[in-house]
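Notes from the pairing session

We agreed to fold both candidates in a single pass and log them together. This is the raw record for the first candidate, unedited. Please don't reformat it; downstream parsing expects exactly this layout.

Candidate A
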Amino acid sequence: MCAYTGVSLTWPADATDWGDAGAGTRTYDVLRDGATIGPELTYGITQYTDDGGLNGSTYAYAVRYVNGCGLHATTATSEAADLSNAPGTPAITGISDVNACVQNGIGVYYSPGTGASRHDLYSDGSLVVEGYASGAIYNPSDTGSHAYVVRAMNADCVKDSLEQPFSDHTAPSPTIAGPTPACSPGLLSTQAYATYQWYRNGFIIHGAAHQSYDSIVPGTYTVLVTDAFACQATSSGFVINSSPSTPGITGEGTGCSSTGVELSTGANASYQWSRDGVDIPTATAQTLLATQSGTYRVRVANAAGCTATSAGHSLAIANNPQPAIAGDHVNSCPAVSVALSTGAYAGYQWYFNGAPISGAIAPTYHAGVTGNYSVHVVDPYGCLGVSTAYLVFIDFCPATEVSPASAIFPLRVIKNAASGTGYYIFFQRVDSTDGYNIYEGVLASPWDFQYHHADQPGNGCGVAATDLGTGEMRSALVPSDGNRYYLVTAFGGGAEGPSGFDSMGLEIPASQSTCTP
């Protein structure tokens, strides 16, 4: 057997009656060639291994029984010998990294065990190189800390060296961690090393010699590091993209609930609008129709995913006004119109049967024609409000003065080739009339404070008139040469409207009218 396991001896337990009534403390002694090598073994042990002999030597072994009271007995001798020549124990004398900066492996140095036919290298208890020569380069598949053992072997026996731990150096392999998305400004960092030097677009950044670097300018960044073994390595590039410029918002600061206010910003890859700090889920276009008051912002992103957020844009949205019309629905004779009014607003436009009334832009309007009236108003924010239709009925008054001058004076006289006479006269319609008369007037000389239209060639009795449906009537006119004025009267039930008024405001005598009502 191998010397390191020794010679194994066994014997039977002592059953002898020593006549001491068990008073002694019994032990065993193992004898090799008569010399004690295993003294005072505890009674009951019947096995002993002698690993102190020489390889190839034969010895005579015996066991001496001792009762502790001076009595003893010795067995007959028995010869035993080592049958193989075990190798000597190898010793690891050193482990070195072949090149700390490049993973070329390690070298394990050892003093060999005598008589060994070969030596094997073990790492963490596993065979890694069979027939390993001292100092040979061993390329492990990984780096880090491992426990190495050299085993000496001959035909039947092995001897292991003491276990030797070793940490194989890992060459630096820096990487850069940065913001996501990679936008400027952004903090870049790498792993811990002895020294650092940062570069942008291949050019050194002076003063950038720390583990982290705050990148402000877009570009491709790398870092050169040096470890404790003076090994250097450069990271791969980390691209920092440009962030978009801070967006601006264009649009009014006030608006109306019915129309809203369109807000817009500059062109970018994507958009997200928010109101009072909360994103509006569907507001992802370049423009936004805002219909609520609040502070609006827009966050934009470029193609690289870099973002920027605008300053706040305050918006006040006012409710549209709801004007109402006040006034009588029916005229009270002798008045042939009713006064309509609405509330106080910034602007007004009155309508008759859905059409705007020219010049009717005051908060009040005197309606002299039967029909539906409405008013459109604008508040100080520019918001438009429309009243509901307001029906007015103008009754024909049976009095002699069937209409005031303002109701029948012509609105305008125009030259028009479509007219059979070449001219049209337009005047206000008066409901419930039998017809209209046209009078041509002249001035007396010397001036007598009156207008005169008796027996003028341009007079027309019961003229044909066309109702235009807008509150106006139209009739063909045959004007005379020279300066003239024209008066239109309405007649019905044997009565005629006024013949006009002189410069003193007095009615022209009806006797000057040549038409019979």
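Candidate B (folded immediately after A)
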Amino acid sequence: MKKMVVLVMLLMAAMPLLARNIVKNGEFTDGLTDWSNWANGAWANPGETGTGTIAFGWVDEATFGQVTGHLIKSNTKYTMTVTLKTINQSGGQAEGVVLIMQDATAGYTDIVRERHWFPDTYNFGGSPFGAQSPWLQYSLTFDSSVMTGTVGHDLLVAIAIGDDGRWDAYGNLFLDSVVVNIEEAEDPQPANGATVPDSTSELSWVNPVDTSKCDVWFGAGDANELDYKSKLTKYEITGTHVIQPPARQTLAMPEPLAGDKYTWVVNCYRGIPLPTEPNLPGVFWSFNATPLPLIQSDPSNQLVAPAASASFTATFTSSNTATAKWFKEAGETDVEVAAGGDVTITTSNVGSLYTSTLSIANVEMADEGQYYCQAANVGTTVSAAANLAVKRQMAYWTMDSKDGGTYADSSSEGHNATIINDPNILTGVKNGAAEISPLAGVGNAGTWNPSALSGQLTVSMWIKWAGAGGNQILISKANHWQNPGVYWEIGCGSSGNLFVLGGSSQVGLPGSTLKAGEWQFVTFSFDGTNGSLYVASVNDSGNTLIRDTGSFVLGDTPDAILWIGARGTSDASVPPVISPTEEFSGLIDDVQILNYSMDVRGVVDMYNAVIDPDKNFCIDEYASAADLVNDCKIDMADFVEMAKVWLDCGLYPVCP
């Protein structure tokens, strides 16, 4: 137990405190913006180069500073931290630095000022000419709970070059950062300055570390440090949060929002017993509440045949009169979809609930894409986008020839596959077929994704397997054998077992399913949820269609290369080179890819389109229990088989 306590304490020690830097451009990423020379100042030229570093000085008592615009809060500890270095220059060198915080409202009077001398090693004469100190860091602190007269006044921060009276304070300081931190609650939701729907149900924020309790002050209108207790209402957060890392806290919206500006602040307490006033007071946040439309349901994806109809429906609520528009995503500038011709848009409402429907008749390829609804009243809200995909053949490689070093795509999509080493073109199940081997015939069809809009897939091919030889890949969309390298792939093992791999799933058939030297039809169909793998042989005189169905998930690499007869693998170069591996051994013919899921009847039709339009397959699995004679029919022959045991009482050990 002691070890656990020590571990928790170490983790807490490593946890940074939540704090906000109130200095503007404190790391000088915008050069000298927001900073000025307050006395005898001069920017050194040249200074140290590099983004985020400023050099100043070379004038006696040069002072560099900023009016932060931050109104000092009550019961707050302010810590100023400066990171700098000095350099031994010809004619003089800064010997120290003065850190200053002033009350700009009260005539630039000092709140606190401290002089820090550099170590002797870096003083004038103590180091060789041109030597630079390492980066040095100095801090200055004041507590407004003690210096109460500063509350509500504008804070000024400054840095001056100091000397010990022996020499004028000439030389340069190189400033890397100037930070004034205060601890407070952070990351408000709604975000500061945001516009939110009037249905927003809660406030949330991140507490500072080791917070004992917090109070939330909330109300309509503007408020600040001086008047918030009279304008806002206090809501105490119940429960204690002692000894904890920064944690998100929530509060149900204290009052119904009414389309107005709201201000809130989270004041927190640290310590036991609790102090009488918050010692971690917060910054004031505000947001505007407007009755924006609130999406209730998003449109659904549509996958339709050419010339069919598609429709998208979105619902939203609006407390005042609203309208709806539909858009099609088109790169950086989306295109509004206008009613007319084959496009119909209807919007209706019952009270505050609106329903808008986009309908497209006679869908064609130009209609494919992503669509969303934009609801508008005094502001706008958009629904999620939904896909419209047109069912079609995405690729068809007949494998009859190797013209121009490619397997030509006979579909209308133009996905020709580049051949890796010329194969032999032999007699196929239909015209020619490519002989694939580890040395020749693999095709690279590019990185396009047939499932991009549809989320579905059908891959079919005819193969004549050469036989055992380790794992072989028939076709794949993969850059590596491990997830997430595989988007999907169809492969076989040395025993003739057939499998399909996805992101974290597999569908498979047992050994001896593939038969060496025999033409077989292999099809994989994925409907977005389940995958089905089918195999049928040319030489099978019966009606057998071997299949396996199971849940299936596509992988995480939709831009992987689509390989015919292999899987991809990447080497160690940067960027990696993708090359084929685990090549298939045998003949491949008539490869088709569809962007939709083909059902079992469609698979039979694809087989019959090549072999025998009159061939029948037994496809209804429900019949298997009653088909006692195994002829894929339930008829008198099955009744006779059942009648043979009609009088068997089924009791054990004997019938009465």
